[in-house]
Design brief:
By secondary structure, the protein is an alpha+beta fold. Helices cover about 25% and strands about 40% of the residues.
Amino acid sequence: MAKSVRLLAVVSLLGLSVSPAAFVRSEVVSVASNGFEVRESVHIAAAADKVYGALLVPSRWWSSAHTFSGNAANLTLDGRAGGCWCENIPEGGGSVEHMRVVFLMPGQILRLRGPLGPLQGMGVDGALTFTLKSSAHGTDMTVNYVAGGYAKDGFDGLSKAIDRVLGQQMESLRKLLDV
């Protein structure tokens, strides 16, 4: 039985409740008038190379609710420097470039550049870094998203929303691999 499943069983026996998202530690690290940083941390009961391989297939773990097409199956990620994290929009023949790969070390680091979600229509850019560290029982993953630029109404609300969405995506990835 996976470590996280055992933890849920113990919590349940004690009569406590815990959300599955409790396995992902999310935080807005800082917010300023010109940008923000959020961080997600999660332990995944799988080897770092397996986690890295899954990161390269966002259609398996990214939520359809947070796509332009409404279907995560339309997401692709070309795992090489300059590679696109893109989305096809079948209706109307459109497409979206979400981010570009700028640095990768298989099993260790994946870094992409680009504005996530609502930031895409603003004068904002961002860097999304997945850092993987092997541990005794799997992989400890830290995800940092640092964004900067101009947002008419500031970054306070946006930082919280992006932190929440990234936390949900990391929980989805954890559940996919944490068996």
